[in-house]
Give the backbone structure.
Amino acid sequence: MTRVIRFHQHGGPEVLRIEDVAIPPPAQGEIQIRVKALGLNRAEALLRAGTYIETPALPSGLGLEAAGIVETVGKGVQGFAPGDAVSIVPPVSMVRWPAYGEVVTFPAELVVKHPPPLSWDAAAAVWMPYLTAYGALIDIGKLSGGDFVVVTAASSSVGLAAIQIANRVGATPIAVTRTSAKRQALLELGAAHVVASAEEDLAARLKAIAGPKGVRVVLDPIGGPIFEPLTDAMSRGGILIEYGGLSAEPTPFPLFTVLSKALTLRGYLVHEIVSDPARLAAAKAFILDGLTSGSLKPIIARTFPFDQIVDAHRFLESNEQLGKIVVTV
């Protein structure tokens, strides 16, 4: 028996329960891991609330990220042994492969030996933000030196990962956040410029920063009315990559701006990287190299103990965090 976190009905953080369940041994090609830390993601709150792209049978587990020690390897698994320090690449289905537990089982292809100096907290905060940002900016956006890139929701773990990746390839990251409360922190964490969208004219500020060259790449999880000022500041042939839909307001399609500038508006989920072995291998190499060199460094907003998972989810939904929320086991 092991303790896991599940929910029996959709709702707020209070529906999460810690329960004892029997965990079968790993099947062929699987690895069983004793978890040391979990990384929290907004997708888990959406699954819990019943508004995620995946609809679970209840009761359901949840969770996309974990780090810990290999406990048992299934038949056919090569390159891993009990005692290895590992972290988890987010699965396509967290219902099939939930990470919230003291002991979890994952396919071997989603398990990564992380650099030894990485703490458990940091290791649990790597793969969702850095894979998401890498897939959008490098794999799809082909971001490179000299580009201006706008990162909205910049204080999120994905936003901070995107800022670090932009700096790593020599691009200029422009952080967009709602108010100026996090301006100084974002500058200290690598943003070249910070724009407070609720306090400033977003399009005018972006145009002033990027100049005639314009913004070539935009990474946005919000949607809604922000689309119009973002596309207004983009360069001809630019690409806006949308990986969420946090705005409750309708998202306008800026038809004439898109036509006149030949813009690409691209929907994106990290699943397309995780599901493609070649693209995933390239992403792992880029991220592991960055972690080893120190150019990529997970930012932890706050940690909670396993028994306080309800409080951790409440904090997740507060939007007060700067970086990743981690639960220690």
In short: The chain has a mean pLDDT of 96. Residues 52 and 316 are 16 Å apart (CA to CA). The domain at 128-271 is CATH 3.40.50.720 (Rossmann fold). The two ends are 16 Å apart (CA to CA).
